[in-house]
Amino acid sequence: MSEREQPWSDDPVRQGRILVLTDNPIARSIAVIASTVGRTVVVEAADDGGPGLHPQSGDAVVLCDHDAPDAPAVLRAALASEASYVAMMASRRRAAGLLEDLVAEGVDVSTLHVPAGHDLGGKGPGEIALSVVAEIVAESYGRTGGPMRG
User: Fold this and answer.
1) What residues does the XdhC Rossmann domain cover (predicted)?
2) What is the domain range of residue 100?
3) DSSP assignment string, 61-117
4) d(Cα 116, Cα 139) in Å, to the nearest integer?
5) Looking at residue 44, what is its pLDDT?
6) Is 11 within the bounds of a domain?
7) CA 139 – CA 82 distance, rounded (Å)
C-alpha cells in the first residue's frame, strides 16, 4: 500500500503579522480569513491611527479606510518601515490625490499596493478581504498569485 501524499505541510508557518487600520466590515473579514490561514492579525479600530501600528520586518499593513484622518501618516510610517507589504483599500482614482501628496513629500510609493488585493471581481467585504489576504500570502512566498494550472 502506498502512502497518501498530502497537499499541505504540517510545519508551522512563521510569517509577520497583518496590521489593519480602521475597524470596518472588510477589516473584520480580513481578520477572520487571515486567522484561518494562520496569520496573526491586529485591527486598530481608531481611524486616527490609534496608538500606532508599529510595523516590523515581515509584517503586512492594510489601510482599509483611505479617508481615515491619519491615512497619510499611517502610509508614511508603513512605507518607511520594514513591512513586507503595504496596501490601501481604494480605487486608483480615489487614491490619486493622497499618492500625489505623499510623492510631493518625497515618500517612495512604488511598493504600495493600491488598490489592495488580487483582481477576483468580488464586491462584498468577505470577497474583497479574500483577495487582500490572497495577495499577502502570495507575496510572502514570492509568488504572483496566478492560477496553479498551467
Assistant:
1) 19-136
2) 18-140
3) EEES-TTSTTHHHHHHHHHHSS-SEEEE-S-HHHHHHHHHHHHHTT---TTEESS-S
4) 12
5) 87
6) no
7) 14
